[in-house]
Amino acid sequence: MKYARLTPGHGFKPANSLLYYLQRLIVAPPLRGLCVRLFRAWVRVRQGINAHDVTPELRQLLDRLHADGYVALGQVLTKEQCNDIHAYFRDRILTDRQDDSATFTLAHVPPRTRLAEYGMQDIVACPHILALANDSRLLELAERYIGCKPTISQLGVRWSFPAPPAPDRRSDLQTFHRDSEDWRYFKVLVYLTDVGAGDGPHVYVRGTHRTRAPVRLKIQSDGEISREYGTERLITATGERGFAFAVDTAGVHKGAPPVDKPRLMLQIQYSLFRSYAYLYEPQPYTGALSFDRYINRLIVF
Question: One GO MF term, please (predicted)?
């Protein structure tokens, strides 16, 4: 997904910049909470709200996500479905996350590459991904957590590769940080490869989504995180291919750099509105599945 230019220069989008930094500047939890309540009430008026009762299973997931900012969802894809995804992407073009002029296939990854992504056109056409993003269980979790009908505001499939340390190739995604995507949002992350401790697991600092974020987002070292929060608050998400978890990335987190084998991960972001950090280019969808047009409006048409 392409990033919007938020500062003056070629391709600068003043409207994107204004709306993005407006939500970045309001960090006081009471005021931010008030804005979220007003905005989601507006979406409810326009889009309605799910009137179904919350099941005990969903209530348990919501309580854990609210309390910790992280909840395991278990296996959401079978190994066979993961194999289908791998087969589809085998010869598709990857783009280096840190150099969008560098493209290659999985068979020819440059040795210094840390992160690489597939394009939205291929993601939309890949089997199982859109169906999972629109799974009724995930959409209900998103609607209840956000408080109104959600928007899929990011959909990505990314490889993380073992690579030797290189200061000029350090990735902020692999260093502890917070996201600031929208007024309210969370992500469902799905491992498409088996992920153990040495394979680049997601690491989250429990409960930090409920703390005040700084206006100027920053990255933090492992040592700083240990001193500020203690190692007992770290959640390291490991699991077999098909394992998923929901995480509010307004909290402190990172994707650990893999050292043993590459990691492939699907990321689905559900939010209150679009994220003005991105430029959206909805892709044509010609499959047989029927999707809610509002929820998917930024991804497909």
Answer: 2-oxoglutarate-dependent dioxygenase activity
| pTM, full prediction | 0.95
DSSP of the chain: -EEPB-SSSTTB-HHHHHHHHHHHH---HHHHHHHHHHHHHHHHHHH----SPPPHHHHHHHHHHHHHSEEEEEE-S-HHHHHHHHHHHTTSPEEETTEEEEEE-GGG--TT--EEEE-HHHHHHSTTHHHHHT-HHHHHHHHHHHSS--EEEEEEEEEE------GGG--GGGSBB----SSSEEEEEEESS-B-TTS--EEEETTGGGSPPPSS---B-HHHHHHHH-GGGEEEE-B-TTEEEEE-TTS-EEEPPPSSS-EEEEEEEEESS--TTEE--PBP--SS----HHHHTTTB-
Tens of pLDDT, residues 181-205: 999 999 999 999 999 999 999 999 9
pLDDT digits (tens, 9 = 90+) for 135-186: 999 999 999 999 999 999 999 999 999 988 776 667 889 999 999 999 999 9
Domain boundaries, the chain: 2-296
